[in-house]
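Good morning C.,

I know you're traveling, so I'll keep this short. The sequence:
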Amino acid sequence: MTERKNTLVCTFDPQSPRITAYDIHEWIYKTMHFEGTDVVMVQVDGPRRQVYIKFKEYRRMQETLMSINGQGELRHSNGGHL
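The tokens, ready to paste straight into the viewer:
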């Protein structure tokens, strides 16, 4: 079993529209304001409706959690919530 260090797990409503890789990319860099060097890897688990975001540094992950107060919002390209 691998250890998930510096990884933020985002879980989306199962009733929401399907999440595309493009939606996730836009959300990470435009809405969450991550720099290209902040994120090491992004993994999408479609069936579980989860996205794993692995950060290069623990500090940046903690800053992100504090800034969103543990909860963020992603809107679908049609304006609906994801």
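Safe travels,
E.
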